[in-house]
Amino acid sequence: MSKPSYTVRQATPADAETLSGFVYELLSELSDGEELDRNIIADSARQLLPMATVTGLLAFRGSEPVGAMMLNECAAIYAGGRFAEISELYVRPEHRSFGVASQLVSAATELAGARGWKRLEVGAPHQPEWERSLKFYLREGFEEIGPRLRKRT
User: Fold this and answer.
1) Domain boundaries 7-139, corresponding CATH code
2) Cα distances (Å, whole numbers) of residue 112 to 95, 100, 126
3) Which runs of E-coded beta strand occur in 2-129?
């Protein structure tokens, strides 16, 4: 059986509903049953996608969207200037292990070169529960640089 073919394109503001659906699915997997509000996620997508510092990527099999990645442009002295953070990456379970996430990372890497971003960074989910995610990023050329922390305001 041959490997399915996938394509990746940059999202537009018209893709907000599709992207918010992927983020909802991602958060549902990571939340351990915590109740999520689809409307808040959709509103966030509609507000963020038009921003110049936010980029969405969508992966397709034919015309069916099967995965998504969100990138945020950041800047830091330690990074040598502008870089991007992968804030969300999700591939529907039935399309995993076919290279979809790798294609999204590859598209993000190309975009980074075109925009002058010095690096891509990502926060992997809790270990060891999400060890598969960490191993994926390591295979894609990412290096571990330490845990990520947050403070809600």
Assistant:
1) 3.40.630.30
2) 25, 18, 26
3) 7-10, 54-61, 64-76, 81-91, 120-122
Contact 84, 54 (CB under 8 A): no
Global confidence as pTM: 0.90
Confidence of residue 146 (pLDDT cuts 50, 70, 90): confident
State the Cα angle at 46 between 44 and 52, rounded to 5°.
95
Buried residues in 4-20 as b, exposed as e (16+ CB within 10 A): eebebeebeeebbeebb
The CB-side HSE value for 50 (13 A sphere, CA atoms) comes to 5
- Beta bridge partner(s), residue 82: 75
- Residue 139: its pLDDT value, please? 94
